[in-house]
Design a protein that fits this description.
Elements lengths: L1 H7 L14 H8 L3 H7 L12 H6 L2 H20 L9 H12 L11 H8 L1 H29 L8 H11 L2 H4 L1
Helix pairs in contact: 2-5, 6-7
Length: 176
């Protein structure tokens, strides 16, 4: 136990304060706009913003703290934007803003007639495109079933089986 206390009390094992990012660094980051932040720290524009694991391993503790501060500041600046391009509802927010104000949220200029029309009918267009994608997917699946049937793959039912089961489920009045 005495040996443990001796080691624990030695200067090498004392808690050391981690280096802090300086107020000068914080002030310089705080004055940057969104585009300036993205230009100065290109890792912010990645799918997952921030330094990746290998980059973090090569950083000093001060650099890591600075990168974390830059990332926090980037999130703050993004939250102040009218339309956040990282949001899952970015297009919906974009259309809503145009519909409400008639201006482009990125440039502040008045939008043209086509963009205004898109914004007014965005939910209809989004729903229609989802329906069309579903119909195309169903057509592709059906075509693959037919190809598999003609090549001898018995994992799919034949077209005659499908139509036969449909006709069997019909009532006699419906068949007339």
């Amino acid at each position: 136990m005495a040996y443990y206390k001796k080691i624990k009390d030695s200067p090498a094992y004392q808690k050391q304060d981690l280096p802090k990012d300086s107020p000068v660094f914080k002030a310089s980051v705080n004055q940057l706009t969104l585009s300036q932040l993205e230009k100065a720290y290109p890792y912010l524009t990645r799918l997952y913003p921030g330094p990746d694991a290998l980059e973090r391993l090569q950083m000093t503790e001060t650099e890591r703290q600075q990168a974390d501060y830059v990332l926090d500041r980037y999130q703050e600046v993004l939250a102040q934007q009218l339309v956040n391009w990282r949001s899952p509802t970015a297009m919906q927010d974009y259309a809503s803003y145009i519909k409400a104000s008639g201006r482009n949220p990125y440039t502040g200029q008045k939008v043209d007639e086509g963009t205004r029309l898109m914004a007014e009918h965005y939910s209809w267009v989004k729903g229609s495109s989802t329906l069309v994608a579903s119909l195309i997917s169903a057509k592709i699946d059906f075509d693959e079933m037919m190809v598999a049937n003609h090549t001898g793959n018995k994992n799919y039912r034949s077209q005659d089986d499908l139509l036969g089961s449909f006709e069997d489920s019909m009532s006699p009045e419906d068949a007339k």
